[in-house]
Amino acid sequence: MEEEIDLEILKKHSLLFVDDEETLNILMSKNLSRYFSKYVSVFSGEEAWELLLREEFDVVITDIKMPGMSGLDLARKIREKKSDTVLFVSSAYSQIDFMLEAIDLKIDGYFLKPACISEMLKTIKERVELLEIKRDYQKTTKRFEVITQSMGEGLITVDEDGKINFCNSYFIKMLDREMEDILNQDVYEVLKEFGFEDYRRESCDILLTLKDKISRKSFQKVVKQSGDDLYLKLKISPIDKHDDENFGDVVVITDITEYKHYEDALFESRAHYKAVVDDTPFLICRFKEGGIIEFVNREYSNYFGFSPRELVGKSFFELIPESALEITKQIIKSLSKKNPIVTNEHKAIDRDGDIRWQRWTDRAIFNNQDEIVSYQSIGEDITERKAIEDKLKLANTIVQNSHTLLFIWSNKEGRPIEYVSENISQFGYNSEELISKSFKYSDMVFTEDLAQLNKEAKEYIKNHIDRFKQKYRIITKEGNLRWVEDNSLIKRDEKGDIFHIQGVVSDVTERINDQENLKIKDKQLLVQSRLAAMGELIGMIAHQWRQPISAISMGINNLKADIELGSYSEKRANEKYDEILFLVDFLSKTIDDFRDFFKEDKEKSKISVQQLVDETIKIMGKSLENSGVKLEKEIDERCEPEVFKREMLQVLLNIIKNSKDAIKEKSVKKGRILIRSFIEADGVVVIEICDNGGGIDETILPQIFDPYFSTKSASFGTGLGLYMSKTIIEQHHGGCLEARNTKDGVCFKISFCLEKI
Q1: C-alpha span between 643 and 605 (Å, rounded)
Q2: In terms of DSSP H, where are the helices of 282-382?
Q3: How many CA atoms lie within 13 A of 164 on its CB side?
Q4: Residue 689 has what pLDDT?
Q5: How far apart are CA 616 and CA 656, in angstroms?
Q6: Does the pLDDT at position 174 exceed 90?
Q7: What is the Cα–Cα distance from 153 to 172, expressed in whole angstroms?
Q8: Does 388 score more than 90 pLDDT?
Q9: How far apart are CA 478 and CA 427, in angstroms?
Q10: Where are the alpha helices (DSSP H) in 114-168?
């Protein structure tokens, strides 16, 4: 597995890629552009140079061999005008000879085609880091000049003849002279004014010491000016040439009066410092190579269950479990002058032998020769924090793999997004582009839903409802619409002002689609049920029409016989005419009754249960009479629910027909169906239809409302009647339909609250 490289540093820099090969240009743009703050590719040296004259690029990669201005010519111009630019050249193996010329131009590196992208990035990163170091050095030099002139110490430089060739403004202020009065003066005479009588002798001693290479330390001396409680410190540092010969000194004069005053106070504070170290809740340990402990504070010794005496001289590696030991040693080994401090987390064994998590900051302590003499570590127990982090990681994983998104919106117009969970990617976006100042959450909301969304939110806020739910559509980045359910929580400050809104937004598109499909399915089943009922009703029509048609036919035959036998009587003819007209009118009304049944209800209407029952009897009264079933009513006239009339007639017909068929199937003598209605104490309207058809087997009673379930043979039942009856009552009217066995039959109970129907 390749080692992962941290390329974050490249995002602060720009890159110009120059190559006349179009395919390579496109390929490199695809692979490199995402790593840099600015990435531009061109196809010629001329185009690249014109661009460089207008814009700055930190890194340039150019092909060596190109028509017109070659990569070497371009590199020459860059080195003449832009010495800081990180410059790379690339070539094929056949162009390897050009590399020697390129190297003479002091390029930063070269790549052979085809180049490995990861190696290119690694090399570019190394050169960019050097570029940043160089720029930092330049900044540091400028800062040093500023600091030198603004520092609160007197600073002078002295040439090898003892003449002052530079002094800062503070030194001038200390002497209360002009610059020209100090420069080129004998440093020994000038320093006498500060009380440093022995400067010449002490300086010579230093030079002798340096020649013998005994020490590289600078010399410093403290004097107290007579008559005044004023302390000055003189620090002399020799300025060396490359051959170690001295050609002058740097002299710093510091007013340390305040320091001297605090020196005694510092001595006294050491006792306080020790108390602080012992009383701190952090673990403090000082150790040598190999983890040999030199010092521990009270918290450290208490944590591990040993006294300081038992721990000093012992390696703290013994307190680390085997699984974390090697990495701990590597971390300590990595400490150096360039990398003096490292923070890490690892496991440790506490006084009870339990494995705990700790966070340590390890620091290397150096002597004057920059050699590590010891280490200091400050630690804390983070076991509870690690447990919480593990739980947060688990929770975050669950969120990222769910259809639920987390938002924090600013309470401003359009709801600017302050935070969004990473799983916003399911809608084609990424969190960074949504949190940008130019993007607002309202940009995602479907235009037709936005006005209603804002109106509802304003109403909730106005009424101080801080938790509310909204359902609307959002637009994915690809332009698709998705339904979401938004559970919002308003967060207020101590004054009650809203500072942001938290939202848990769930994608409910599939659920809504399922609901819509279910509605379509129920509508189809309702039509299917009505068609089935139509077939049954046609049978009822046939029963109801058979007798009137027979009577009409018989009356006409009787009239014809009277005429043929010569016994025609006008009185008898009129009687037959009236009888036939009555029967025809009866048939016409029957047609109207059945036709009304199949009309679709568009709106609910208030209707009495008595009227519903009467219209039901009109349709199937003859069918009950022919089956020998007696229909009885006990109707409370106050029961006037608001319903879809045709749907309620279908429910009553389904249940009554089922009762009639059960009575007929069981050959019950004196079959009886009772319809009664009443209002319960809690205001619930109830309609009960009970029969004496012998009841339903208790094992199948819970299934009678399932679709396509029927106790009848396939030729006599579809299994949709009771299913659609339950759907109509419960989903269309907000009521309830249930069945129970009674002593001699079954009883269907329809109930619904007046305010819900």
Answers
A1: 6
A2: 298-304, 308-311, 322-333
A3: 22
A4: 92
A5: 9
A6: no
A7: 10
A8: no
A9: 8
A10: 117-150
Q: Please give the C-alpha separations between residue 211 and each of 198, 245, 251, 394, 709, in angstroms, as whole numbers.
A: 20, 8, 19, 67, 112
Query: CA dist 117 to 35, 99, 138, 544, Å?
Result: 12, 20, 31, 91
Task: Read off the pLDDT of each residue in 565-593 and give the average, rounded to a whole number.
Answer: 67
Share of the chain above pLDDT 70, in %: 76
pLDDT of residue 46: 93
Q: How many CB atoms lie within 10 A of CB 273?
A: 10
Residue listed under structure tokens 């049944």: 597
**pLDDT tens readout for residues 65-102:** 888 898 888 888 888 887 788 888 888 755 556 666 66
SS (H, E, C) 619-666: HHHHHHHHCCEEEEEECCCCCCCEECHHHHHHHHHHHHHHHHHHHHHC
Tokens of 26: 């496109």
Do residues 110 and 102 make contact, with C-beta atoms less than 8 angstroms apart? yes
C-beta contacts of 582-586 below 8 A and 24+ residues apart:
583/548, 583/549, 583/551, 583/552, 584/552, 586/548
Respond yes or no on whether the N-terminal peptide bond of residue 321 is cis (omega within 30° of 0). no
Mention every residue, 6+ apart, whose C-beta is less than 8 A from residue 425: none
Token couple for 369: 């020769």
What integer pLDDT is reported at residue 205 of this predicted model?
Answer: 47
Are 358 and 379 in contact by the 8 Å Cβ rule? The answer is: yes
CA 65 vs CA 23, 90, 96, 482: distances in Å: 16, 9, 11, 54
Exposed, middle or buried by CB within 10 Å (0-12, 13-18, 19+), for 602?
A: exposed
pLDDT over 80 (residue 178) = yes
Q: Which pair of tokens denotes residue 671?
A: 């079959």
Alpha-carbon gap, residue 724 to 651, rounded angstroms: 8
